[in-house]
Write a structure and sequence with these properties.
The protein is an alpha+beta fold. 29% of the residues lie in helices and 30% in strands. It has 5 helices and 7 strands; from the N terminus they run E-E-E-E-H-H-H-E-H-E-H-E. The strands form 2 sheets. It has a 5-stranded mixed sheet. Strands 2-3 form a two-stranded antiparallel ribbon. The chain starts with a strand and ends in an 8-residue tail after the last strand. It binds magnesium ion. Magnesium ion (MG) binds next to strand 1 and helix 1.
């Protein structure tokens, strides 16, 4: 079994869409980013890539590359899942925490789980998404940004020698 850890943060600003977990969330502010700014998907990608020994999201999809401008991050996640399957790595579980002061994530929880499980090709029971505030402390607490943390485990093929 292999374990991965992913982290992402994005600045929140007016005039941007807020997209987290592949779901558009109506809010006065959204993530500032080269892509659609989906910090949850970016953290998931980094956890999966890390567990697979495949570096990180920035090395696969550089933000200096115009083909990724405003890209739907679900496309990036699908590409990461394809890289895992090339190594015959199977996603065992993905555990996520979103830290954001506002808005409440609970109305969007089920849609996020459904969307992300489908993109990753896993049963929804293998994916957990939790959300919390930062108790008004720091840049998350002031509403300046959002943070996402993700761990995952991957199962290696039993006959693997050198991955
Ligand atoms: Mg990001």
């Amino acid at each position: 079994m292999r374990v991965g850890l992913g982290y992402d943060s994005h600045r929140l600003a007016e005039g941007r869409r807020l997209v987290l977990g592949g779901v558009e969330i109506p809010f006065e502010k959204g993530c500032v980013a080269h892509s659609d700014g989906d910090a949850l998907i970016h953290a998931i990608c980094d956890a999966l890539l890390g567990a697979a020994g495949l570096s990180d999201i920035g090395s696969h999809f550089p933000d200096t590359d115009s083909q990724y401008k405003n890209i739907d991050s679900k496309i990036l996640l699908a590409k990461v899942v394809e890289l895992l399957s090339q190594k015959r790595l199977k996603i065992n579980n993905v555990d996520c925490t979103i830290v954001i002061e506002q808005p409440k994530m609970s109305p969007y929880h089920d849609a996020m789980v459904q969307t992300l499980a489908e993109v990753m090709g896993i049963e929804p029971a293998r994916l957990t998404i939790k959300a919390k505030t930062n108790e008004k402390m720091g840049f998350v607490g002031s509403g300046e940004g959002v943070v996402c943390l993700v761990t995952c485990t991957l199962d290696e093929p039993t006959d693997s020698v050198n991955l």
